[in-house]
Amino acid sequence: MTRARWRVVAVAALALAVLSPLGVVHWARSRAARDLAEHDATAVAAYLTLVTPSVPGGVDYDLPRLLIRARALDGLPGLSARFEVYHPTAPLVRATAPPLPTATLERLRRRVAVRWIDEADVALAPLLDRNGWDVVGAVAAEADGGGWPFSPWFLAALLLLLVAGVQALRGMQATAEVRQQALKQYWAAAALFGLAAFAAVRLAAGDATDRWLGDVRQLMQEAVARVPELRGAPAGLMPIARGAETVPADSGRAGARRRDIGGVSRATVAVRLSAGRWLELRARPGEAGTVGWLPALLGLAALGPLGLWLGAWATSVTPRHRHETLAGWGFLAPSALHLVAFSCVPLLLVPYLSVHRWSPMEPAHPFVGLSNYGRVLGDPLVWSALGHTLVYACSVPVALALALGVALLLAGGRRSARRRLGMVPWLLLPAVASVAAIALVWRQLYHPDVGLIDRLLTRAGLGPVDWLGDPAVALAALTLVGLWMQFGVYVLVFLAALRRVSPSYLDAARVDGADAWQRFWRVTFPLLRPVTLFALVTGIVGAFQVFTLVVVLTAGGPLRGTDVIVYHIYRTAWERLQFGEASAQALLLFALLFAATWLQLKLLDRGVEHA
After folding, report:
1. pLDDT at residue 611, rounded to an integer
2. How far is 128 from 567, CA to CA, in rounded Å?
3. What's residue 41's pLDDT?
4. In whole angstroms, what is the distance from residue 501 CA to residue 506 CA?
5. Are 550 and 562 in contact (CB under 8 A)?
6. Which residues, at least 6 apart from 340, have a Cβ–Cβ distance to it below 8 Å?
7. pTM for this predicted structure
8. Are 398 and 483 in contact (CB under 8 A)?
9. What residue ranges of the chain have pLDDT lower than 50?
10. CA 383 to CA 389: how far, in whole Å?
11. What is the three-class DSSP state of 129?
12. Which helix (H) or strand (E) segment is 545 a member of?
């Protein structure tokens, strides 16, 4: 591809980096306006139900009073939305407005819920009769975005990105140093623009929450003014504040604000009912659900400098090298995306969850600091699970010792190569087979009634053993399966390492009069030390992550006798639904495995120096 074509690609990337965040901000503002309209339509419908009397002896509204109350909404100051009230299909606020389609009213009657009418771009809430049984009309709310669509800071960041992008495009013809400096400025401007777009999204969501709470306050105070009986029974105002929490308050201050209540951020506004009587409205702030937009907007803004960087790289290499590199990254892309989605993203989320009381069953996720860690460190079940895991990990050195002995037997003799070749499939079978399938086979072998192991023990006069049902032997039975699974791989590792031991060392020791044991202990084993330490530490790290065997064989039982740490984390998260505490446990396990890895590196470095 020529330099001119790559310039076109860079320009297209700049346009995409500008237009994509703009589109996201526009969508966020539209979404916030739609949510505001839906909340306001519901609040107005509840307000009209409270302040409009019914016809004598009926449950429908007194139409002249409903007409007065509906038209009074237009003169109510401070409301964010424009309203139209229908009864049942006739408009009451603006007589010249088109009537509500009968089919739309019937749909509201079949499903009593707020509907969004895309054709009219309004939210439609059902207006119920005084008893709340039948839909006798509807309230339509049309909300605007609220103010200028973009803040000055956002426009300044946009202008800075355009200037930096144009300068970087011009710098493609300059020296490498100038091009690199322009590209750095381009990256910085893109990051600033992404942050500004994220701030605009948060501002739109938070502003919609504040305007909704302000409208609810206005409607509540108007309802109390029209129906004084509600001052002594504020519970009757609750339908107006549907979606928000109402609590008594001592006093209030004008405007919505953010408060930390029980570790959870809440948008609050005070409602004055009468002299000395206040209510406080609390709702989840709209900006609380926008955190996920930060990486998305930063990624969209980075498309510009990324396209320019790719263009500069593509024009500096040969076509063959470019095609090979792009093909290689194309093959790696699916695996890289899988790694990012299922490893990197959870790794970034775990520290956040560990300092919050996070449960999918609770609407609020308060910040709790280090209390999750304190609860984990003081939980005896966690330490019991760690102890069981440590006992299971003891199978690793046992498996290494047995594997080394078998490898020495297979490596000796003139027919060692043929024996190794015949043993490879059997040694690899436990490693390549499904862990779940292996566990099912061993569960059948351990069965106390029809299992092969207990049948042999019964014939030998030793009696049957409930391998997986007895807390005294269940962990040992589980450890035996783990040892069997690791044994074959370790044998192959040691066989490969023994082939790298030079025979000259052994011949020299033999000439010096060393016997077989001395040759092994003084010559062979020191040369195998790096491999042994590597297999030992990686095996222990893998043993600390045992999960599938426990799930299939024992499910952590009996009496938590095989409850290992990873299975305990799983149960904490998916059975108790305490993801914050489970994340703290996972970080504790990470610290242990990190320490084991650090130990591995230190021992390997020392082993290589002495080998």
Report:
1. 46
2. 52
3. 92
4. 9
5. yes
6. none
7. 0.72
8. yes
9. 609-611
10. 10
11. coil
12. none
